[in-house]
Amino acid sequence: MQTDQQKIKPEDRETVARIAAKLKELRAAPGIESLEQCNVAVRQQEVKRENVLPELTVVGNSWISLMAYQAKGYAYIAP
Q1: Cβ atoms of 39 and 59 closer than 8 Å
Q2: What is the pLDDT of residues 29-55, one digit of tens each?
């Protein structure tokens, strides 16, 4: 998710705004410590890190981050 409106198709901007609002709401919810965005995806989509939503923490690789959380005892529930 990025904030640069120039990079978002006009027909997608309303949907992106709704998703961004939901992420902001989720980030503020009790028990949510952080929301992470994979830097691999950021690079592949050519998004500048400064344009990633402020509610998201960019991590080097989300798979490695996920494994680290699992090693700490967290469980991954597949959608």
Answers
A1: yes
A2: 998 988 999 999 999 999 999 999 999
Residue 52 has what pLDDT?
95
> pTM, whole model, 2 decimals?
0.78
Burial of 2 (0-12, 13-18, 19+ CB in 10 A): buried
User: Going by C-beta distance under 8 Å and a sequence separation of 6 or more, which residues neighbour residue 53?
Assistant: 1, 2, 3, 20, 23, 24, 37
The stretches of the chain forming alpha helices (DSSP H) are 13-28, 39-44, 62-71
What is the SS3 assignment for 14?
Answer: helix
| Token couple for 3 | 């904030």
